[in-house]
Amino acid sequence: HDMNKELIIKSYTLKVGVGTSDICSDKFISDQTIIVNALDNIEARRYMDSRCVTNKKPLIESGTMGPKGHTFVVVPFKSESYSNQNDPIDKDVPYCNVKSFPANIEHCTIWAREKFESTFHMKPSLYNSIMAQANIWNRISNGETIDDLPKIYKFMKRKCTNWNECVNLAREKFDKYFSHKARDLLHKFPADMVDDKGIPYWKLPKRAPTPIEFDINNDLHYNFVLSCAKIFAIIYAIPVANEQINNVEKNKNIISGTKIEPWQPRNKVIITDPTVAKPTQSKHEGDISTDEWKFAQERTKDYKASPIPFEKDDDFQIDFIAAATNLRAQMYGLEAGDRYEIKRIAGRIVPAIGTTTSTVSGHIITELVKLCLSQLKELPLEIYRNFYINIALPFLIASEPLACTVQKIGKFDVNIWSSFEIKGNPNMTLEGFIQEVEKKYDIKPVLISEGVKSVYAPWMPKASSQLKR
Predict the structure, then answer these.
(1) Catalytic-labelled residue, pool 96, 160, 228, 404
(2) Which of 32, 235, 330, 344 has the fewest beta carbons under 10 Å from its own?
């Protein structure tokens, strides 16, 4: 602003994504001339890319990661979009290390983040998805097989209705994660176990876990329970005053009054092979009776969960992950981690380097000037450049943006920038829409979808009845 007094800046402390579509609306995007991204995650980049493609707006996408950086130009009607690119797949840590045999603080942090995702995002989202299905309770009562039903049953029966129950549930999670889990492992693989050659099973890099006994006067123990309870309160839409959260004495009384079920041996399969990937599905853990379902239904009547996606910049989320990470490390005799180091690992944060940022910024300005000129006269696609750099090597590649792929639909040549417009009305049915498309474009739609959701296909059940909708 000091350089240009006419510059107007409006800042919003909001996450870029589907939830902020009221800010990044079609009107907002279409009112802009050029969009320049400086985002920190793939999901947000793809979202903005889709908004620019929909509204036919040029985009400059960029990013840095340590010494590496890139700029990517999206030119309407000419180039492919950012989403046409495939990012390299991250190399995963062996599942058995994360699940049962951590060797360092990184393994403990990945485990803590996975617990966060599973408990506070995946299960509440799964519950909402299954409960939104038509006639779900009748189908459950009739014994219909529904995927992941045991998972949501556990989620439903443990639904909290007040702050005390959130604290109780968090206290139970402490024993489950940091006491019972260790006992399960030692039951399966005793501390003095040796193989047929007399070699101890528990030898480095494998470390035998030690069950942690909860201590109400240990700050780390208390902080885990409190941070976990706060997130449960959000998921279950329970209003909690700051006075309740900060009342240490009362919270400790609630924790002390929690009934903890004693550990019982379980015949649970423990993966020890580092080449085995994480299972994508969980097994059914026994039948659920009609009475149990009735209890779950009554407890969650008219309830819609509030899943929490992981966000590295939310302190209450990092509170949970930092406490869980260090308790996990303590259980395995590992050195505790610093909160900021844990946040870096959980958020996959790579420290920024000023020279990388300045180099990428210079490339952005170069392409921005070209896009500004394109508003005055037509410029060919080969004028633009995408840049990929690694200043540690040093390494720089400049490449022309790839032209968008064109394919034939009926008599039209179409690409990602193409659109067919139909002027509808409140009374238009699906059948009327199809007829209008045929009439205007001489194309017969064989599949209609909204995003990834199928709306109509001739081979779908009850397809003919859907035409009148």
Answers:
(1) 96
(2) 32
